[in-house]
Structure formats: structure tokens, C-alpha cells
Specification:
With about 450 residues, this protein is α+β, with helices and mostly antiparallel strands. The protein has three domains: about 100 residues, Rossmann fold (3-Layer(aba) Sandwich), CATH 3.40.50.20; about 70 residues, ATP-grasp fold, A domain (Dna Ligase, domain 1), CATH 3.30.1490; about 240 residues, 2-Layer Sandwich (D-amino Acid Aminotransferase, Chain A, domain 1), CATH 3.30.470. The protein has 15 helices and 22 strands. It has an eight-stranded antiparallel beta sheet with strand order 13-12-9-10-11-14-21-19, with helices on both faces. It has a five-stranded parallel beta sheet with strand order 3-2-1-4-5. A three-stranded antiparallel beta sheet has the order 7-6-8, covered by helices on one side. Helix 4 runs antiparallel to helix 5, helix 6 crosses helix 9 and helix 7 crosses helix 8. It binds ligand MV4. The site of ligand MV4 has 17 residues, from strand 8 and strand 13.
């Protein structure tokens, strides 16, 4: 096992990773930007190194600063958290060539899944059903029009190098398609340095279901149930839960076993997530794979009892999976509400600034992953997630009741947060019945322009 891990991240996930290290007896190195000098991850780590200016391009995304910090501190591995460098195959390669273990899958696997078309092709070969769509990138506007005609509207344009909704466009007619293609291409070029766009049939009102998997170096792989991540706003998840109200034992097994085939076919070795769309008829389709630990991983931990961050580290260190599929048990239910420093009454405008007072709720079966404290100033440079409220229980009803209570108790003064909005969503009668899909939030906040 590693003796010292550098955490190349900030906020709640840096703290989450440090906790796992401490419990495994591993020393920790925090890195931080000038804007994060009062952050708790520095306090909790054994060592802390400033890696640059507030802008993430000059700190948390600066590969050479991070590698230098690892070398100076004699760290033997780097945990990238989520976001920033977590799915950057070049970073994973640089780590390996500097003799520092990247805690995640191989650079080759990250690169393969980062190309959304090659990812689909890989999973199709392993028998996963795909959303009908183009095999390659769209070559011209004529190509786009012909393909849409064959496929039938509505269609969706997606960036080959994309994921998570950036550069996506839904089209209902020829008139819109040509201009949508041009905008999608330039957005993709700006965001990913790659303008290639592919087309899929647009699935209306699907649920977003993702399966957690883990695999070792020795051909062993397990799935750890699913998460329903359909409650999103502008492709940002707000509420996630497990099990999904739309997935029964049979579907869970089917999805899980297909995921195992998929990851075995690419010799995947780490934890990871495979995303599916589930349509109104119960058909499901592979969408993409995430090779990182995800924001919402705690709900899976709460129902399986497995610490996914520790597992990720053990797998990176070359250890064997100790648990077999028939020993993975999903018990009860869990939910996560993301508390963002945003104003729900003003188009979710980020509200960074000073927290004069905060109260973090607790109690039985409540878990709050956060980096905030009374007196902490939320910097304006990074994403607005300030806490994750996680509840668990024997069943969904208990989880919901507990979450309501937790959201009421969550106090962050005078900063505006999404806690009250999350409460409105979870107390909605349709949500309470588990009847929701990816378009659900439109009902609350109206259709917003891209
Ligand atoms: C789709 C889709 C429907 N059909 N693909 C959203 C994030 C990214 N991972 C892919 N996403 C979607 N892909 C096909 N073929 C629906 C979504 C989607 C979505 C689309 C438009 C507006 C909001 C959405 C919320 C969740 C998922």
C-alpha cells in the first residue's frame, strides 16, 4: 500500500480523500491555491503546499506544479478527486512517467472513455445496448440532414470529446439542425479543443441511471447497484438516490452484469461509473462511462457499506478485490442533496462570500460531507458545491423524511443555498412517489435557455 498520497483537489472531496487515507494509515499532502489558504483540507493533511494562484488553470489544473509538489514531498501516489485533472489522460501518463501512481484507471482507459464514440463502440462490442446514433463524427451539414432524416426527429448533437452535457443540442427540425450543428461545433472546439460532433436519436423524458463498478488487476469485477441521477438542472445533478425507484432486482442484475462485461473487455482497473438512459418503456441504453470517483459516490457507500475511496486506493496499489459479487448487498436506501452556494430565486446565481455562521445537521443515519465552517469565506473561483447532505434508512420513505429534517436544520448565514430548493423538490408529490425523469425540474423553474 502507499505510504504518502498527495490530494490534487480542494473542498469537500479533498477532505473526503484525506479521511480515507488517515483511516488506512497513509500520510497525506494537501495542495492549495492562494484563494484556499484558509481551507480545512490544509489543516487535516499532514503537509500542505501552495501550488499557485486562485485561477484553477494556475493551480489545481497546473500539472507541473502538482507533480513538483509530489516530488518535493516524496509522495508515492496522487488522488485527483473529481473534476480538475481527474479524467485527464495526459496527467495520468505524466504521473506514471514520474514514478507517482495515479489513483484511477490506466491513461489508456481514461482516453478511450473520454472519446464518447470510441466508448460507445467499446461497450457495443461487449453487448451493451446503445442509443441509436452515428458511428462517427458528422462530416457536413448535408451529412447531418441526411442522418436526421433517416433517424427521425428529435435528434441530439453531442461532442465527441464532451460528456456531462457541454456542447449538446436537441433538434426538432431541419431548420434548426444546421445552425445547431455550427454552434455545437464551435462550443465543442472552445470547451474541449475538438469540434467533432455526433448525432443520436433524442430519447424523451428518460431517467439517468448510473451503475457503480469496481475492478482489480486480476480479472475480478463487481457492481454496486445503481444511482438515479435524473434530478438535474443544466446538466448539474442536484439530487441523487439509490436504489432508483425505476429499477427492480431483475433490471439491476441485467445492468450490472452488462457493465461487468463492458469493463472486463477493456481490462478496466479502478472504481468507475457507467451511465445509462432508461426510457419510459423500460428500455435502457449505454450513454457514457466516468472513470473517476463521482460527487454522488456516498449514497452507494451508505447502502453497500463499502468505502469506495479506500477501495479505489487499494485497487490502484494493486490489491485484489476482497469482496465477491454475491457478497455485495444493497441494504435500505440513501439520498444525496447537493447544497450549492447559489440563489434559487435568482436563476441559481453563484453566491460566494463570507459564512458568518453555519450549522451542520447530524443525527442517526445522516452524513454531511462538507468543507465549510463558521467564518469560512467561499471563494468565487471554483464550483459552488459547499456541502452534500446524505441520509440513509431502511426504505425510501424514511430517507425522505430524514432529508426534509436535515435540510430544515442546515443553516448557512447569510449565504444563499440550494437547501430550500432541494426541500421543495423532495416534498413534491410526484417526487415522493418516485415519478420523475430528467425533465422534472423544468416544472419547478420553467424551461431555461441553454
Ligand atoms: C441524451 C438525452 C436524450 N437522448 N441523449 C445529458 C447529459 C449527458 N450525459 C447526456 N445527456 C442526455 N443525453 C439522448 N440520445 C438526454 C440527456 C439529458 C438531458 C438532455 C437535455 C436536457 C436535460 C437533460 C438532463 C439529463 C439528461
Amino acid at each position: 500500500m502507499f505510504s504518502k498520497i498527495l490530494i490534487a483537489n480542494r473542498g469537500e472531496i479533498a477532505i473526503r480523500v484525506i479521511r480515507a487515507c488517515k483511516e488506512l494509515g497513509i500520510k497525506t499532502v494537501a495542495v492549495y491555491s492562494e484563494a484556499d489558504k484558509n481551507s480545512l483540507h490544509l489543516e487535516f493533511a499532514d503537509e500542505a503546499i501552495c501550488i499557485g494562484k486562485a485561477q484553477s488553470s494556475e493551480s489545481y489544473l497546473n500539472i507541473s506544479s502538482i507533480i513538483s509538489a509530489a516530488e518535493i514531498t516524496d509522495s508515492d501516489a496522487i488522488h485527483p478527486g473529481y473534476g480538475f485533472l481527474a479524467e485527464n489522460p495526459s496527467f495520468a501518463e505524466v504521473c506514471e512517467s514520474c514514478g507517482v501512481k495515479f489513483i484511477g484507471p490506466s491513461a489508456e482507459n481514461i482516453r478511450l472513455m473520454g472519446d464518447k464514440l470510441r466508448a460507445k463502440e467499446t461497450m457495443q462490442k461487449a453487448n451493451l445496448p446503445l442509443i441509436p446514433g452515428t458511428k462517427g463524427a458528422i462530416k457536413s451539414k448535408e451529412d447531418a440532414l441526411n442522418t436526421a432524416k433517416k433517424m427521425g426527429y428529435p435528434v441530439i448533437l453531442k461532442a465527441k470529446a464532451g460528456g456531462g452535457g457541454k456542447g449538446m443540442r436537441v433538434c426538432h427540425s431541419d431548420v434548426r439542425l444546421v445552425s445547431a450543428l455550427l454552434t455545437a461545433q464551435s462550443e465543442a472546439k472552445a470547451a474541449f479543443g475538438d469540434s467533432e460532433i455526433y448525432m443520436e436519436k433524442f430519447i424523451e423524458n428518460p431517467r439517468h441511471i448510473e451503475v457503480q463498478i469496481a475492478a482489480d488487476n486480476y480479472g475480478n469485477a463487481i457492481y454496486l447497484g445503481e444511482r438515479d441521477c435524473s434530478i438535474q438542472r443544466r446538466h448539474q445533478k442536484i439530487i441523487e438516490e439509490t436504489p432508483s425507484p425505476a429499477v427492480d432486482q431483475r433490471l439491476r442484475k441485467k445492468l450490472g452484469e452488462l457493465c461487468i462485461k463492458g469493463i472486463k473487455s477493456m481490462n478496466y482497473r479502478s472504481v468507475g461509473t457507467i451511465e445509462f438512459l432508461l426510457d419510459e418503456k423500460g428500455n435502457f441504453y449505454f450513454m457514457e462511462m466516468n472513470t473517476r470517483i463521482q460527487v454522488e459516490h456516498p449514497i452507494t457507500e451508505e447502502v453497500t457499506g463499502i468505502d469506495l475511496v479506500k477501495l479505489q486506493m487499494l485497487l490502484a496499489a494493486g490489491e485484489k478485490l476482497k469482496i465477491k459479487q454475491d457478497e455485495v448487498q444493497v441494504r435500505g436506501a440513501a439520498m444525496e442533496c447537493r447544497i450549492n452556494a447559489e440563489d434559487p430565486s435568482n436563476r441559481f446565481m453563484p453566491c460566494p462570500g463570507n459564512i458568518e455562521f453555519c450549522y451542520i445537521p447530524g443525527g442517526k443515519d445522516v452524513r454531511i460531507d462538507t468543507h465549510i465552517y463558521s467564518g469560512y469565506a467561499i471563494p468565487p473561483y471554483y464550483d459552488s458545491l459547499i456541502a452534500k447532505a446524505i441520509t440513509r434508512g431502511d426504505n425510501r420513505k424514511e430517507v425522505l423524511k430524514k432529508m426534509e429534517r436535515v435540510l430544515d436544520e442546515f443553516l448557512v448565514e447569510p449565504v444563499k443555498t440550494t437547501a430550500s430548493f432541494c426541500k421543495e423538490v423532495i416534498t413534491d408529490p410526484d417526487f415522493q412517489r418516485g415519478k420523475y425523469h430528467t425533465g422534472f425540474l423544468e416544472k419547478f423553474i420553467g424551461k431555461e435557455e441553454e
